[in-house]
């Protein structure tokens, strides 16, 4: 609870504690939810494979699919397929969205 919470919240909190429960007012719940959402966004990229992270880093550096394929010694089609998978996992529709999503999720992709 916060000092500026209404008195009704204090009464609800007292009743909850009296019954052996915990209580968080609406403002506190809002802060908890925001923090959880931030952590979830950052953790959301944890499902990327090391290869996907490698390709994401190269995309962020401005490399084309052909350049990435040459550097990783794979076919261009393989890179395109992995790029498509990255965009799906990150919820992006294009490369700009992919880069934005990586930054928003706090990924370290220099």
Any overview of this molecule?
The longest helix has 18 residues, at 26-43. The protein is rod-shaped and about 65 Å long. 14% of the residues are buried. The mean pLDDT is 80. It has 6 helices and no strands. The chain has 2 domains: 7-44, no CATH class; 48-104, Winged helix-like DNA-binding domain superfamily/Winged helix DNA-binding domain (Arc Repressor Mutant, subunit A, Orthogonal Bundle). α4 crosses α5 (76-90). The chain has 110 residues and is mainly α.
**According to CATH, what is the topology of the largest domain?**
Arc Repressor Mutant, subunit A
The N- and C-terminal alpha carbons lie at a distance of 41 Å
Q: Stretches where pLDDT falls below 50 for ≥5 residues?
A: none
Compute the CA-based radius of gyration: 22 Å
Q: Which CATH-level-2 architecture of the largest domain?
A: Orthogonal Bundle
Layout: helices, strands, pairs:
Blueprint: H1 7-18, H2 26-43, H3 50-60, H4 65-72, H5 76-90, H6 95-104
Helix pairs in contact: 4-5
